[in-house]
Design goal:
alpha+beta; Phosphorylase Kinase, domain 1; Transferase(Phosphotransferase), domain 1; TATA-Binding Protein; 3 domains; six-stranded antiparallel β-sheet; five-stranded antiparallel β-sheet; 21% strand; manganese; Kinase-like_dom_sf; Ser/Thr_kinase_AS; ATP-binding
Length: 426
Amino acid sequence: MPEIENVTETTHKNALFGKYEVGKLLGCGAFAKVYHARNVQTGQSVAVKVISKKKISASGTGNLMSNIKREISIMRRLNHRHIVKLHEVLATKTKIYFVMEFVKGGELFAKVAKARFSEDLSRRYFQQLISAVGYCHSRGVFHRDLKPENLLVDENGNLKVSDFGLSAVTDQIRHDGLLHTLCGTPAYVAPEILTKKGYDGAKVDVWSCGVVLYVLNAGYLPFNDPNLMSMYKKIYKGEYRCPKWFSPELKRFLSRLLDTNPETRITVDEILRDPWFRKGYKEVNFYEEEYKVEKEEEPKVKQLNAFDLISFSSGLNLSGLFEDSCNPADNGEIFISAEPPEKIVEKVEEFAKANENNSRVRWKKEWGVELEGRNGNVAIGVDVYQLTDGLVVVEAKRKGGDAGSYKDMWKNKLRPLLISGQTSQP
């Protein structure tokens, strides 16, 4: 077995956490390696993505850790035939392991690099890509890094979207209704991202899909230049040429996908009705999972699972959940409490009433409340999540204002009222 880590959780010398026999290296990057592995109980092949927390910390880029946490949160909510499935997440103090569906055929990029595809085969892959992208958008998820390297092909020749590390969710949309983070791969980036004025996540995904479709049919990029700024100018102006073997229908369709104006660019719903797209099209349920899952009645308080725990935990180290506190001058804090969730929310409201000259309740949901200073100098959100029948996780976040005011209101005033129901450390 490759030396990916000397893991104390291993109960079998060749099994990671006693569950997965790790095999050959499939690929690697600056902060992660991907291995083929086998579930020792079921024999199922899986891919294990191993991320080094030490390398991430050494990079000094806090956004990388945020991206990993967001990727966990996003992948656990997606269940679609053309999206790589995340089975589970495991963690140690030094590494985090994504256990994912193993896609045997490898990257679509490797296939198109050998030879361009026929228009019919390109259309088939594009239909599957739009199936996945439309599903993500209907769930409030925007990929933002769609390219052949992030599209895998299984043994049956079906496409699977992977790598949600740069994805965004609707929660990240600002008051102007747009996303503002600059990200993506240069050759696939939409022109509106280059303006740095904000962009629609769904629109930029459609643009990237257009670039992918061009590459599948042509075998090369529509916008390419050794000088990055020259390439960006071509993207911004929409300057590309279609090779002679492109059909008139494909050229017309591409012009709608690669429309530099996001307002007039074709939408996913319009793609589904387009004549070129529908040629040879077999009915596919684009907004439903391949199989139905019996839905349980939603609990009043959100139940947390292992994915949530790792997402919450400071630095992806689960021990952080059980520490008494983190630095209150930071943007938030998490602790475990034995208080009923309704009691915690009630205490926050009582605090606001008792300190009405300094604070007020800005809004309230069933098991969450946001508090705002009267002079607008600070805003604190408090959310409660069910951990077990008798325990809850209380998460406080600074929603606005300066760190000093947050520290004063949270550490000196509100936290002491809520911490009284906290459990003792294990």
